[in-house]
Amino acid sequence: MSLLPFWFLYIISDVLFVIIYYFVRYRRDVVQQNLANSFPEKTEKERHDIEFKYYRYLADLIVETIKMITVSEKQIRKRVVATNSELVHEYFAKGKSIIAVAGHYCNWEMAALNFNFVTDKRFMIVYKPLSNFTFDEFFIQVRSRFGGQPVAMKQTMRKMAEYRNELTVSVLVGDQTPVMHEVTYFTNFLNQPTAVFLGIEKISKAIDAAVVFYDMKRVKRGYYTYTLVPLTENPKQTAEHEITDAHVRYLEGMIRREPQYWLWSHRRWKFKPEDKHK
Questions:
Q1: Is-contact 211 200, C-beta < 8 A?
Q2: Tens of pLDDT along 186-214?
Q3: For the whole model, what pTM was predicted?
Q4: Which residues of 102-135 are buried (b: 16+ CB within 10 A; e: fewer)?
Q5: Which of 19, 45, 58, 230 is the most buried (most CB within 10 A)?
Q6: In whole angstroms, what is the distance from residue 278 CA to residue 82 CA?
Q7: CA–CA separation, 146 vs 1, rounded Å?
Q8: Are residues 143 and 172 in contact, defined by beta-carbon separation less than 8 angstroms?
Q9: Where are the domains of the chain?
């Protein structure tokens, strides 16, 4: 299926949308609850419109992900464009490694593939292993296609120490949900107390890396841009939780701009602050 051209995959996506939205009704209760909690100021019709557009996009995201197993470098360069890749070289010239923070927004995996072409330095993609071995292996294969080095989340600090004498780029997804026993910090995100990992902040301070955020936009079906937005160049000079709050706030702004491109079917709010004390 991955060998099929994009135009044909989008025909499949149109059919897939009907199946997952109307027949399977894939996690529609989760999506509706997430939208109601995140946008209480919107009308029911406005939230329904976001829900409908989200499932249309989710079908596209599924077929694009399948395509990534065979997509060519030429197609990735054509379909995903970095608007300010020179920022990477400016940081390297200052002797700074880079932590690039992404969200589950637009096709974040395709943007990571494109980032391989921005630099010839070591490029690591930090990921949270999936419980399903087959899917986990699939994504490892996709992420490593153009030279990226997938690194399991729990191995991150060890790898950073191993490559401390190199200039590197590390991509981390900032809106993962921690497991209960790992939660140490909640912040307000989309009108809700939200548990967040502090790993981005801890790693950037440990290796004194510049922190940037992927600001992704969907130009049209199958085409994207991303802009690297500087969050801090000197993480050791920031206050506790300052970096974490910065990337959470930026993601929230991006979601509010075009909410249909975030992963609403993800069970992001599994527990509340009071659950820590039960």
A1: yes
A2: 999 999 999 999 999 999 999 999 999 99
A3: 0.93
A4: bbbbbbbbbbbbbbbbbbebbbbbbbeeeeeeee
A5: 58
A6: 46
A7: 20
A8: no
A9: 81-258
